[in-house]
Amino acid sequence: MEAITSLLAGFDTALTPINLLWALLGVTLGTLVGVLPGIGPALTVALLLPVTAKLPPVSAFIMFAGIYYGGMFGGSTTSILLNTPGESSSIITALEGNKMARRGRASAALATAAIGSFVAGTIGTLLLTFAAPAVAEIALQIPPGAKFAIILLAFTTVSATFAGSPLRGLISLGLGLFLGLVGTDNQSGVARFDLGFPELLDGIDVVTVVVGLFAIGETLYVASRFRKGKADVVPLTKGAHMNREDWRRSWKPWLRGTALGFPFGALPAGGAEIPTFLSYMTEKKLSKHPEEFGKGAIEGVAGPEAANNASAAGVLVPLLTLGLPTSATAAILLAAFQQYGLQPGPLLFVTSPDLVWGLIASLYIGNVMLLVLNLPLAGVWARLLLIPRPFLYAGILVFATVGVYSLNNSVFDLVLLGLLGVLGYLMRRFDFPITPAIIGMILGPAAESQFRTAVQQTNGDYAAVFTQPLTLALVILTLAVLIIPALLRLRRAPAASTSGHTDEVD
Question: Can you tell me where the transmembrane regions are (predicted)?
Answer without folding.
Answer: 20-49, 61-82, 108-132, 138-155, 167-184, 204-223, 315-337, 357-377, 384-405, 463-488
